[in-house]
Design goal:
This protein is of the alpha/beta class and 732 residues long. Helix content is 22%, strand content 28%. Helix 11 (361-373) links the parallel strand 16 and strand 17 (378-382). 36% of the residues are buried.
């Protein structure tokens, strides 16, 4: 079977940047300029040229019957060639073809031929096409059906094999809310399609201002020619508060025509920076207390870039007069409720809760619980060998503690004369890898490398299990969780929300070991980030986006996602996120609004299982228009998160003119056939198997079986055997 694609895309006149293909096209065109020869004409010349006629070769060399079809929106038989006398009519039918079909139903054409000849000795299908399918089954799908019938597809790609380059920016992530002076990191992926040069390109970060776009940073990356996306990371430190719109853009590659996917916008809320007030309550001056206290007092300029924390300390086991001599000590026994609510973060170390606040212990513990649930302050439990977390089992703080203490364990640390020698490296969970608490670098790979190289720890708390609906950020690499599911490891860093406030539980007490040699910067970053995460959760905003891109065609699936920061609260249970959808008519070529009415509806997004706090919904067949998606529930601080997208009319036959080499190569491989360009098209005859006809009826002289001596001897033997059997059975 020979199929010729007669859709309108075959009327394209190619420039042929591939030298071998261009030389072959010029040879076929002869004296006619290539600008006057379309793809279908090249296929006609290749198939029925007098000096190299494919029909003659198939009839004489392969001795097969040839049937010709034209394929566009339907599949039409052209001619049947069984001998040389019928070849002339077939050539005439081929010459009359024009490329005017309004669609390319290529897969359906192959399937129709397979269906019509199912059960017949169909040897192969040769198809001349550009491989672009505009409707129905594509060639790879049809190839699977052909493979089941044992029919290989030999696909000749008619067109320029040079693919138009296309750089694509997508998957942009950035914190939706940052403080003025904070480090804002944009992470994206740069993909490449077509003939993109394997040379570095620069991705720019720009900010929209009243006077235009201003550069805010850049990164140089090298696109992967195979099409795999490469990460892009650009950091910027905003110095002014307000809602900022940033544009991430990559310049067009040489020869690139589609630049709509070369840039993406993101809106970020920059808040006024203020000093974070921290209350650190500790039972005794252990190592972690000493180093964390000093860090919060001095703040390493190298790692955080300036003082932004004010710390006050309550040390229960302090000597008399310590509060008067230490600059960070809280002047008094314990803050009152009003004073406590003036702090942003409270760190509770290895403290006996019965001794907090002296005579006001019961009131102080209730105030601490309300500090989280009512005020929305951040609370960090730092475990220790004397009390935390078991000591909080029967206190008001048990409600906000992310873990459930069991029976008080025995001594968890050996005597001083038996030092701990067994080290362990905490293992980050998928949620922990995305949490800013463990982000030591803007680059994810570098951050993972830093985490893996930190000094191993020695001690960890035991005798507890995590509460339901909490997030485990780090776990023990080998110890099984107490009361957990099979395979679950012992949780070491656990997060939950109590009311409006975030709570972190650290089941370890020797992070000071992370200060080993040159790692002090990473120790500093961990603790400063812990304070910032707990202090800013109330202003964290979710991110609303449209995936996989911002421009779609009618009948494509449009997916809307809302992702909440892993360290901020989100709707619980089965509560959906609601997004308003506003659809307006498509803009005209000059950018003016198109005719038609604007429609508004509401979309409910449901929680997607996984480590991320992601809500998602899909519009399976979105009509054409300009879309604006805006989150309306739950409410967030500042302006509502939004995203825009466009749904365009389906690409018509004349919009898609590039040679679809990928589909044709995949279809040929799946069916056991081959893919060829104009330059290699004659290799089809080498790759075709021996397709000699199977002779069903041929004249030959008769064979006189009855007069053969062997037949006579066999008959006599049978008669003698019968007589002997009858004789033995006395039947004679």
């Amino acid at each position: 079977m020979i199929l010729l694609d007669t859709s309108a895309s075959m009327d394209t006149r190619d420039l042929f940047k591939d030298p071998a293909v261009r030389a072959r096209a010029e040879d076929l065109a002869g004296t006619t300029p290539l600008s006057d020869v379309n793809r279908l004409r090249l296929a006609q010349l290749l198939l029925a040229r007098p000096d190299a006629d494919w029909l003659d070769r198939l009839l004489k060399e392969k001795q097969v019957k040839v049937r010709l079809y034209a394929v566009d929106t339907d599949t039409r038989p052209l001619a049947t060639v069984e001998d040389e006398d019928q070849a002339a009519d077939a050539r005439g039918a081929i010459a009359k073809l024009t490329a005017a079909g309004e669609g390319s139903h290529l897969g359906e054409g192959v399937e129709a031929v397979l269906k019509d000849f199912r059960g017949s000795p169909l040897a192969a299908i040769i198809m001349f096409t550009d491989g672009v399918t505009t409707a129905g089954a594509d060639l790879p799908k049809a190839a699977r059906a052909a493979a089941q019938d044992g029919v290989p597809l030999f696909l000749v790609g008619v067109g320029d094999t040079w693919e138009t380059p296309d750089l694509i920016l997508n998957d942009v992530h950035a914190e939706p809310v940052v403080g003025r002076g904070d480090r804002l990191v944009f992470e994206a992926r740069l993909g490449a399609r077509g003939q993109v040069p394997a040379a570095p390109v620069t991705v720019f970060l720009r900010e929209k201002t009243p006077t235009g776009l201003e550069d805010r940073g850049q990164a140089t990356v090298t696109p992967d020619p195979s099409g795999n996306p490469v990460p892009v990371t650009i950091a910027h430190t905003p110095q002014e508060a307000g809602e900022k719109t940033f544009v991430l853009e990559v310049p067009a590659a040489p020869g690139e025509t589609n630049t709509r996917n070369n840039k993406i916008e993101r809106t970020v809320l920059v808040t006024d920076s203020r000093r974070i007030r921290v209350l650190y309550v500790e039972g005794y001056p252990r190592y972690d207390f000493r180093f964390v206290k000093v860090l919060l007092e001095r703040e390493s300029d190298r790692s955080v870039g300036g003082k932004s924390v004010e710390v006050q300390v309550v040390l229960q086991d302090a000597s008399k007069g310590w509060a008067e001599t230490d600059k960070s000590a809280f002047r008094g026994e314990f803050p009152t409720r009003t004073e406590l609510f003036g702090f942003d973060v409270v760190i509770l170390g290895d403290v006996d809760p019965k001794q907090i606040g002296g005579a006001r212990t019961a009131v102080v513990l209730r105030d601490l619980a309300d500090f989280v649930k009512v005020k929305g302050g951040g609370l960090l439990f730092l475990a220790g060998e004397h009390g935390t977390p078991a000591a909080y089992a029967d206190t008001p703080l048990a409600e906000v503690l992310p873990v459930i203490p069991g029976d008080a364990p025995g001594a968890t640390r050996p005597p001083e004369e038996q030092p701990i020698t067994e080290e362990y490296q905490p293992k980050l969970t998928p949620a922990g890898k995305m949490h800013p608490l463990f982000r030591f670098s803007a680059d994810q790979a570098e951050s993972a490398r830093v985490w893996g190289n930190l000094k191993p720890l020695l001690w960890y708390a035991r005798g507890y299990r995590r509460k339901p609906l909490t997030s485990v950020l780090a776990e023990h690499p080998t110890r099984a969780a107490e009361g957990g599911a099979p395979g679950e490891k012992h949780p070491l860093v656990v997060q939950q929300f109590a009311g409006a406030g975030p709570v972190l539980f650290l089941g370890l007490d020797d992070t000071w070991r992370w200060r080993f040699r040159s790692d002090e910067e990473h120790f500093d970053r961990f603790w400063i980030q812990a304070v910032r995460v707990l202090s800013r959760s109330r202003i964290r905003r979710p991110e609303l986006r449209v995936v996989p891109r911002a421009e779609f065609r009618r009948d494509e699936r449009v997916t809307v996602q809302v992702e909440f920061p892993i360290e901020s609260p989100a709707p619980g249970g089965d509560t959906p996120v609601r997004v308003s959808v506003t659809r307006s008519p498509l803009k005209t070529r000059d950018g003016a609004p198109g005719p038609g009415a604007t429609e508004t509806s509401t979309l409910a997004l449901n929680r997607v299982p996984g480590p991320t706090i992601l809500f998602e919904a899909t519009l399976p067949r979105a009509p054409e228009g300009e879309y604006r998606f805006e989150m309306i529930d739950p409410e967030v601080q500042g302006s509502r998160p939004f995203a825009t997208a466009s749904v365009l009319p389906p690409m018509n036959e004349r919009d898609r003119t590039e040679l679809n080499r990928a589909d044709m190569e995949r279809a040929a491989s799946q069916s056991g056939g081959g893919f060829y360009t104009l330059a290699t098209a004659t290799d089809v005859f080498n790759d075709l198997k021996n397709l000699q006809r199977v002779p069903l009826n041929q004249p030959c002289p008769p064979v006189p079986l009855w007069n053969q001596p062997a037949v006579y001897g066999l008959l006599m033997l049978l008669l003698l055997t019968e007589w002997l059997l009858r004789k033995r059975e006395r039947l004679l």
